[in-house]
Amino acid sequence: MRSRQHESGGSNLPLPLRFLAAWRTVWPGRDLQQQADYLEAENRSRKEALGDRIPRGYGP
Fold it and tell me: CA distances (Å), 36 to each of 24, 29, 40, 43, 46, in order?
């Protein structure tokens, strides 16, 4: 006969606390992805605005 602890993956935390722990683990990664998406869009728009021009200090 299996114990209840084995079925729940070995955690003895109550379900609401397990949910909060999982949420806290996932949320920072989600925030970082949103920041990366914003910066990629910002870089894309700036490159389109510059066209073929090279900003001063970045060329040969």
Answer: 19, 11, 6, 11, 15
Question: Cα(23)–Cα(15) distance, rounded to whole angstroms?
Answer: 12
Q: Give the number of other CB atoms < 10 A from CB of residue 18.
A: 14
Give me the count of residues in the chain.
60
For residues 2-6, average pLDDT: 51
What single-letter amino acid sits at 28?
P
Provide the percentage of residues in the chain whose pLDDT is more than 90.
27
Is the pTM higher than 0.85? The answer reads no
